[in-house]
Amino acid sequence: MLTDLVNLLFEEGAMDMLSIHKTALACNVASYHEFLMRYSTTNNIVYGFVEGKEDPCFYKGFIQSLIPDDWDIELWPAGNKNQVYKIYESMDWQRFPQKRICFFVDRDLSELIPRTLHQDFNIYITEGYSIENEVVNRNTCHRLLTEIYGFANIEHKELDRICDLFEEELEKFLIAALPIMAWILFWLRNNKEANLNNIEISKFFVIKAGRLEMKTALTTVGIAEYIHKKCKIVYDQQIDISSYETALKKEAKYRKFTRGKYIFWFLLKFCDSVRENAKILFNSCPNKVPSMKITLSTSNGMMVAGNRSRLPNSLREFLQKTFCEYITSKPAQ
Q1: What DSSP string runs through 149-173?
Q2: Coil, helix or strand for 237?
Q3: CB 52 within 8 A of CB 111
Q4: What SS3 state is found at 205?
Q5: Angle at 66 (CA atoms; ends 64, 70), nearest 5 degrees
Q6: What is the DSSP string of 67-129?
Q7: Three-class DSSP category at 244
Q8: CA dihedral over 83, 88, 89, 92, signed as positive or negative
Q9: Which helix (H) or strand (E) holds 207?
Q10: Which conformational region is residue 210 in: left (phi greater than 0), alpha (psi within -120 to 50 degrees), or beta?
Q11: Do 61 and 135 contact (CB within 8 A), yes or no?
Q12: Which residues contact 257 (CB under 8 A, 6 or more apart)?
């Protein structure tokens, strides 16, 4: 077993680079390899593993805000949820302090499939579908418009009105995306593999002056045919997904469990449309629309928006009971 090998290496004092490399290969996750090479028993560092390469943009700032200034955090993207859990299972907690090494995974649709995700006190599972669901809200929209899109000098009441519009149109978007999410839920319940990144949500929707619009040529059947084709799944028109839509509507679960990348797309496109129509939407807008400090896209947006969202209470409590307790337990140097 991997843990036995790590024990042996520690006990014999032979944890050199070659030994570390061999140990990491047994786990077959590159980020675990790098972690083993950098892990220090003496440095003021806590460690964590996340799913994707953009996830540190969300977690790192929050962690740094809670730990002392003389401590740091190193986060390692593992690639996906399965890889994060694989690293967790490979850890020898006889050797590594469990509160010092944490794991961060997305809930996805596991609650609705249902599929049980392994839980432990050092594993954080998002409240909604993914971290994007924690980011996309009124507060982040307001901060992006004022700090990135250049509308800091717009009157507060006008910004409030636009943020009201954001919440209204986001709800419409979530409802409109229900058929897509229902199919995804059907696929997952029936063990059909699908690369959801192949689905381009922009094929279905457009946002004009802050208002959501469906692209005219699309029908419910057309959407279903498109997502099946992109995900390389045979489309069966006889399948009734109404019960899956009902499951998502129950207790408004769609608000938590619409795919994060879809609602993040909505956030960015909403802000883009506000800027493009600023002279119409804002009475107090100057003659020249303010220039943006950075161009945002779905590929770089989390780097900017992630640290402008509020720290979720569940994440705060998790960090206080893990990293913060570990640091507090260490004697002052």
Answers
A1: SS-TTS-HHHHHHHHHHHHHHHHHH
A2: coil
A3: no
A4: strand
A5: 60
A6: S-TT-EEEEEE-SSHHHHHHHHHH--TTTS-TTTEEEEE--TTTTTTT-PPP--TTEEE-SSS
A7: helix
A8: positive
A9: strand 205-208
A10: left
A11: no
A12: 107, 109, 111, 112, 128, 129, 181, 248
Q: Does 5 have pLDDT greater than 70?
A: no
Tokens standing for residue 165:
């519009």
Place of tokens 């907690």: 93
Closest by CA to 264, choosing from 228, 299, 291, 316, is 299
pTM of the entire predicted model = 0.89
> Under 8 Å CB-to-CB from 43, ≥6 apart: which residues?
none
**Domains in the chain: boundaries:** 2-127+312-329, 134-308
With vertex at residue 201, the alpha carbon angle to CA 198 and CA 206, rounded to the nearest 5 degrees, is 150
**49, β-bridge pairs:** 76, 103
- Cα–Cα distance measured from residue 184 to residue 210, given in angstroms and rounded to the nearest whole number: 27
What is the share, in percent, of the chain residues with pLDDT greater than 70? 91
Q: If you average pLDDT over residues 17-43, what whole number do you get?
A: 74
* Tokens standing for residue 61: 């700032």
By residue count, the chain amounts to 333
Distance (Å, rounded) from C-alpha 67 to C-alpha 70? 8
* CA–CA gap between residue 271 and residue 296 (Å, rounded): 10
Are the CB atoms for 31 and 78 separated by under 8 Å? yes
